[in-house]
User: Which sequence fits this backbone?
């Protein structure tokens, strides 16, 4: 069960184009698994228009130390809510609900795993890499972004992976192009059996398709807007095929954010496919 707690800001530090926010969250680190996220309340009496919480993947946790438990969140300053968060200073209070969502599933046996991250979507992959290595898995990491500044976690990746492959669309770091331009080569070289991915929807769709072609099992953490984070508002639903072969509109914040890649109907996100359980009929009945 998630915990709602009033945390305090410890630090806000720059990381390329992003910022890493560290907040006290007693009890949360012990419950957190790779792929979980946190939902933070935004604003105060002077910013009452910011009603909805903001959801962020949990990048790291620390259960010990003088703060009694902290979480790290990677934030891009792209709107009024995130800008408010990044103006917080040491000791400022932030209301947190965490850990939320369905995390990545870990393999029972040591297997070769490739982790793929796009931009700051790579945030949850490093905690995942650590736990995979503890299970004896080989870990290879592919990180991509539009530019070098928008990459996240390159040094962390080099500390936790057998190989690290970097791509940027403008060629400012690593190989010019997208992660999928290098992924097949990485998977072949490593003999990858499992692929984990987190990043933009278009990247997840391409990674999932490539993994399926190569016969690898894929898990994707989707980036979908989550207004409440607890499954009430239904703003983050996407079409997913169930074990019974039937498509349902499921909530990314509760049934996800991690889904089996081949189960997500990537091309239909943003719509309700006609064959979805409960979808409106042509006659409106």
Assistant:
């Amino acid at each position: 069960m998630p915990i709602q707690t009033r945390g305090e800001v410890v630090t806000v530090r720059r990381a390329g184009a992003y910022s890493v926010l560290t907040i006290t969250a007693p009890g949360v680190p012990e419950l957190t698994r790779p792929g979980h996220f946190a939902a933070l309340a935004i604003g105060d009496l002077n910013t009452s228009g910011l009603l909805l919480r903001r959801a962020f993947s949990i990048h790291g946790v620390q259960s010990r130390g003088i703060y009694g438990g902290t979480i790290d969140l990677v934030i891009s300053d792209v709107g009024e809510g995130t800008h408010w968060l990044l103006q917080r200073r040491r000791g400022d209070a932030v209301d947190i609900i965490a850990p939320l969502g369905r995390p990545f599933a870990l393999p029972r046996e040591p297997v070769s795993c490739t982790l793929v991250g796009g931009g700051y979507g790579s945030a949850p992959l490093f905690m995942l890499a650590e736990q995979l290595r503890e299970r004896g898995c080989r870990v290879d990491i592919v990180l991509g972004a539009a530019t070098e500044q928008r990459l996240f976690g390159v040094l962390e990746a080099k500390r936790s992976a057998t190989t690290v492959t970097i791509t940027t669309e403008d060629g400012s770091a690593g190989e010019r192009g997208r992660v999928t331009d290098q992924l097949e080569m990485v998977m072949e070289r490593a003999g990858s059996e499992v692929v984990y991915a987190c990043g933009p929807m278009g990247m997840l769709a391409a990674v999932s398709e490539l993994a399926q072609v190569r016969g690898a099992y894929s898990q994707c953490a989707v980036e979908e807007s989550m207004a409440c984070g607890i499954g009430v508002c239904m703003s983050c639903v996407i079409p997913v095929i169930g074990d019974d072969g039937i498509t349902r509109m499921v909530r990314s914040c509760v049934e996800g954010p991690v889904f089996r890649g081949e189960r997500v109907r990537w091309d239909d996100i943003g719509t309700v496919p006609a064959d979805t359980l409960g979808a409106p009929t042509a006659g409106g009945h």
Notes: The chain has three domains: 3-100, 113-223, 224-285.
